[in-house]
Amino acid sequence: VQLQASGGGLVQVGGSLRLSCAASGRTSSMFVVGWRRQTPGKQRELVAQITSGGSTNYIDSVKGRFTISRDNAKMTVYLQMNDLKPEDTAIYYCTMGPAFNPTEYWGQGTLVTVSS
Length: 116
Fold this sequence. Notes:
The chain has 116 residues and is mostly beta strands. The protein has no helices and 11 strands. The protein has strands spanning 2-6, 9-12, 17-24, 32-38, 45-50, 56-58, 66-71, 76-81, 90-97, 105-106, 110-115. Strands 2, 4, 5, 6, 9, 10 and 11 form a 7-stranded mixed beta sheet that branches. It starts with a strand and ends with a strand.
């Protein structure tokens, strides 16, 4: 499985970005997909995740601002990020895998920078 993330960039506080992650190879619509992020000096954290059935979960700091979605026909997962804050600045990674190992596969990361 290969994951190709895109959509990162530089945005001002309060702006929006949409990240995309296209999967190829031996993927499955049953896979759990998610977005994780990392900043220097901090542990990588789960931002949002969506199951094959469409159930979602988010870290508290992005609830109401970020929306994760998936298009199984296109094998693509999205992260719509609104009202961005400087603390959202990070490298964002898409992940994919079966429910017992949802981070089995990782994309290459895309940098999001929010300027104040």
